Amino acid sequence: MKGHGPPYNEQVNVDLHCHSTISDGTLTPETLAQRAQANGVELWALTDHDELGGVARAQEAALDLGMHFLTGVEISASYGANTLHIVGLGVDPTHPDLCAGMTSIRTGRERRARLMNESLAQAGITGAFEGALKYAGNPNLISRTHFARHLVKTGVCRDPNEVFRRYLTPGKPGFVPHQWATLADAVTWIRRAGGMAILAHPGRYPLTANQEYALLSEFKTLGGLGIEVITGSHSPAEFIQYAQVARETGLAASCGSDFHAPGESRIDLGDLPAMPDDLPKVWDLLADRIHHPRLAG
Ligand code: AMP
Ligand code: MN
Ligand code: MN
Ligand code: MN
């Protein structure tokens, strides 16, 4: 795999998590596909937040470029006071239950954004809703990322990370608690649409070891089958930690850059460290859902 040398060169380059302008990425599905292919990705999925609107475009572009493709989505779910992200791979992007679920989640976003605007205004930052909206390629999917880009552009913070440290997170100005899907709904919609539910970037949730164990048990009971091990959201220590979690839980391992924007994301498309050889891979379980390029094998 590019940039990581032997013995990893023989591994297939898989990137199953990223975002386009249909959610909070800055590149169109087509431009993302080109970047993935240029970076050596062989099996790719687009996983926009709560949106399937980019999947057909991404698939078309990916197959034209000779990549193998899995459909995808990243669903926001509330779990106690925490927000979890559940990636669905191999879903039918037209399935009525999944589409209705995504529409229902998106509906609350504008109201939340207006409340975020009010909260920021109380902290002396005005006009943030209008500012964030300028960055939203899809007005139905206004996200904290768009607020972050606006606050960087207007000089309130130096980079998005600083924004999330000082604003938009629990206890800070601009944070508004929000009710997303339930974990059960997110997993059920994905399963009904023929896909596999994968717990995204588990290292990012502020859970104790016991709480994480309870989450993993509940996720498996609901029918969740995978867990992200290698992701742009994990540190190298977390790659090792969650590889071990995959072994202990029997969840299949997934990997994805979580790429959002050039110069913003820690890991570029296709530039992930290799997955441990011994782990069962989500793409092996999803073999019959993979779309293959027209010309190449
Ligand atoms: P939302 O779905 O509107 O709550 O926005 C969540 C998005 O914010 C995530 O998908 C990330 O893209 C972004 N995000 C969250 N925390 C951070 C962070 N610390 N630095 C940069 N982006 C972040
Ligand atoms: Mn995002
Ligand atoms: Mn996420
Ligand atoms: Mn993501």
Topology readout:
Layout: E1 14-15, H1 29-38, E2 43-45, H2 55-64, E3 68-70, E4 72-79, E5 82-89, H3 96-122, H4 128-135, H5 144-153, H6 160-166, E6 181-182, H7 183-192, E7 196-199, H8 209-222, E8 226-231, H9 236-249, E9 252-256, H10 282-285
Bound molecules: adenosine monophosphate (AMP) and manganese (II) ion (3 copies).
One manganese (II) ion binds near residues 74, 85, 200 and 201.
Strand/helix succession: EHEHEEEHHHHEHEHEHEH
In round numbers, the mean pLDDT is 95
Proportion of residues in extended strands: 5-15%
Number of beta-strand segments: 9
How does this model look, in words?
By secondary structure, this protein is α/β, with parallel strands linked by helices. 38% of the residues lie in helices and 14% in strands. The protein contains 10 helices and 9 strands. It has a 6-stranded mixed sheet. Strands 1-2-3 form a 3-stranded parallel sheet, with helices on one face. The protein starts with 13 loop residues before the first strand and ends in a 12-residue tail after the last helix. The model is unreliable at 1-9 (pLDDT under 50). The structure holds adenosine monophosphate and manganese (II) ion (3 copies). Residues 17, 19, 74, 258 line the site of one manganese (II) ion.
